[in-house]
Design brief:
By secondary structure, the chain is mainly α. It has four domains: 76 residues; 93 residues, Winged helix-like DNA-binding domain superfamily/Winged helix DNA-binding domain (Arc Repressor Mutant, subunit A, Orthogonal Bundle); 123 residues, Arc Repressor Mutant, subunit A; 64 residues, no CATH class. It has 15 helices and ten strands.
Amino acid sequence: MVRPRERRQAESEHGHRITAAIACHVARAGGTVEHLNRLLFHPEHEGGRHAQVIALRSGHARAQGYVERVWSSATALVESTTDVASREGAHEDLARLRERIETTPWRGERGRTALRVLRAHLNFAQAAGGRLHFASERQAAEEAGISRQTLRQAYELVLKPGGWLRRLRVGYGTEGSTWYLADGPADLHTAGVSRDQPSQCPPDGELGEWTTPETDTGADVDSRVIGLLMGHDAFAHHALGSSALMVIGALHARPGQTPAELTVSASLSRATAYRTIARLEGHGLVQRSSVGWALTAEALGGVGNSLPQAVTAPAPPAADHHLAVSGWDVLAKAYGTAGVAAARRALHAAERAAYRAVLAALDGRRSPALTAVVDGRTVPVPGQRADEIPSGWRGPAGSVLDPVTGRAVSGWQVATDGRLILLTPADELTYDELVAAHTSALHEWESAA
């Protein structure tokens, strides 16, 4: 049988993933490469099919070398991970992941949007007590303050290829999707651009980012602040936007930064950093100090200041939290984005209600299960398949009877498995004619392949 090369490659990649998963399981269980070899090359072990095929095609030595390479990668991966055995360990693991996220440069509008989505899933993971958590796309979109379409683009173009987030199972019915937070790419910092290159170079069209020396390394933001503010209408796309979130998060993590320093810590271009600072200063959210820019009390409203080395003004007390919230509401009204989050939640609620109504209607159309009593036990009776015909239509010798006239219908037959088949002139071929037709079809298929 001739198969296209793309299908063979997909089967090979699938087999490699299964082999790698088995190797990781053996490594975590304390096994050795000899245990892995005996497991993979056992003739009745379906999980070792990929290694067995390599041994069949290229020899046992080639397959042995492949298994040793997979084992080396699996042991390195297992040794680099931390075994989480308690709830405290899970929170420590999430704290390390949050620090890794905060020190990663999220360049361009696409990267900043991906950070909002990742921070939303980190909130869900913290509530679940581990990296494995459940959430729907609507919940994540509401938490991040973006639309579902933008969320999907951030997942498919940034988070999934970057190794930050994986969807293990798609949700169905009233259950959300199953997600897992990963550690991202192994090498977070790319090679720096030459200092001789001008900083105002054109942005990368594929990634939507500025590839300048200013945004290579040294990212440092407080993602907790970003997670608290990103769902507000004041930080919608046509309002302050994600760049303001990055500047506020960077200044909250380390006050007193200059615009040049913000280009590194907030992963912004120089023009975006100056433009965002001017906008925030116009709204009274940042102020210039002797060492640089810092957040004002209005910007810290509802967020707080937990850093001992901060030089910003103290945050308003809890009793004045509604005043701080009203200040963000004033900004949202000024930009014309007030009510965007409420409208998004209302739309999602209507979509959920319509979806659940469809599910309820489908459940109502299902016929009750048929049961029969056999030897004092109640056993289910399998229902009739869609490709079966009623018993009244079946005639002698596999013929099909017309339910109105009771006569046999020419051309139609009932197969031995109960399926209805239509006999055509092509079905009346002799054995030699069938062999010739098969040979001709096989030749055409091999030529096309």
